[in-house]
Amino acid sequence: MEHFAMPFGGRLTRYPAAGAAVKPALILCPGGGYEHCSIREGAPVARAFARLGIESFVLEYDCEKPPLGLRPLAALSGAVALVRRNAGRFGVNEARIAVGGFSAGAHLAALHGAVWERADRYPADTDLTLHKPNALVLGYPVVTAGDAGHRGCFDRLAPRERQADFSVETLVTPAMPRAFLWHTLDDATVPVENTLLLEAALRAAGISHEVHLFPHGTHGLALADLETADPQKGRLPDRHVGRWLALAAEWLKEQG
After folding, report:
1. Element (H, E) at 204
2. Which residues contact residue 135 at a Cβ distance below 8 angstroms, ignoring those fewer than 6 apart?
3. Given phi > 0 = left and psi -120 to 50 = alpha, else beta, which region is 33?
4. N or C: which end of the chain has fewer CB within 10 A?
5. Neighbours of 24 (CB within 10 A)
6. Largest CA-CA distance found in the chain, in angstroms, rounded
7. Phi/psi class of residue 191: alpha, beta or left (left: φ > 0; alpha: ψ in -120 to 50)?
8. Cβ pair 72, 6 in contact under 8 A
9. Predicted local confidence at residue 197, as pLDDT
10. Residues near 25 by Cβ (< 8 Å), separated by ≥ 6?
11. Inter-residue contact 143 to 170 (CB < 8 Å)
């Protein structure tokens, strides 16, 4: 593992993958309601993707001192740029750098995918070509600031009158990269309507995407295996839901 301190707070950790000389890469943003970065949705997932030949990174973005505003977005921008600048050393295809995550982390990844061309969302010296994501991998994402939204996430991002600025389904343009999404219909914390709203926006914009909806499973399943289980919160291993990992890795390895 390698660790990199990120501007605007946070840390990026690399989990190298064996195999091909030039690999796709995935930068993962753990969930945690923009209150913290979940350990369960970070290192275990990165190691699993690395075993499948995806060069993986975990971004622990700063969740201190809300409202967070654009600080997490600046951290993710810097992470993508760092990976792209070091693509040769990491053995990464610089045209195949994905961002992804879970819950609030998936919101951060999706937001970056939606607004990466908008200079007004990033620090003044940001190189928009360096931080462009090539794909999105989103697990049970927080998407909307509307009725189906996770209010706690948006309250930590911005005052109520500014939260619509972070509602991803309203920000999708044809410049958004292709996306892989998965959710469970039983999710009572971040309702599946979040994924459905984003899917409709992607379809309307003509963005290539793949969506998997599993009938059962509580919020926060991560890999849905023994390592990331949390029985006290009903997060039990589920082999069927856990298939999302192999599907996502296969999708990342496709040219798109």
Report:
1. helix 193-205
2. 24, 96, 98, 99, 177, 178, 179, 180, 252, 256
3. left
4. N
5. 26
6. 48
7. beta
8. no
9. 98
10. 54, 55, 56, 57, 83, 87, 90, 92, 93, 96, 97, 98
11. no
> What percent of the chain is modeled with pLDDT above 90?
95
Token pair, residue 209, equals 């995407």
3-state DSSP percent of the chain in helix, strand and coil, to 5? 35, 20, 45
Residue 227 to residues 221, 233, 250, Cα–Cα distance (Å): 11, 14, 22
Lowest mean per-residue pLDDT among 10-24, 136-150, 157-171:
10-24
Are 47 and 83 in contact by the 8 Å Cβ rule? The answer is no
**pLDDT for the residue numbered 256:** 62
The predicted structure's pLDDT at residue 207: 98
- Count other Cβ atoms within 10 Å, centred on residue 124: 6
- Three-class DSSP category at 104: helix
Mean pLDDT of 40-67: 97
What's the pTM value of the predicted model, to 2 decimals? 0.97
- Residue 35's pLDDT is 98
Q: For residue 230, give the DSSP letter.
A: B
What is the strand order of the sheet 23-29 is part of?
Answer: 2-5, 11-15, 55-60, 23-29, 92-102, 135-139, 178-184, 209-214
Dump pLDDT digits (tens) for 1-45: 899 998 888 899 999 998 878 999 999 999 999 999 999 999 999
Gyration radius (Cα) of the chain, Å: 16
Asked if omega into 67 is within 30° of 0 (cis), the reply is yes
User: 241 - beta bridge partners?
Assistant: none
**Mean pLDDT on 95-101:** 98
Q: Which two three-digit tokens encode residue 73?
A: 């977005």
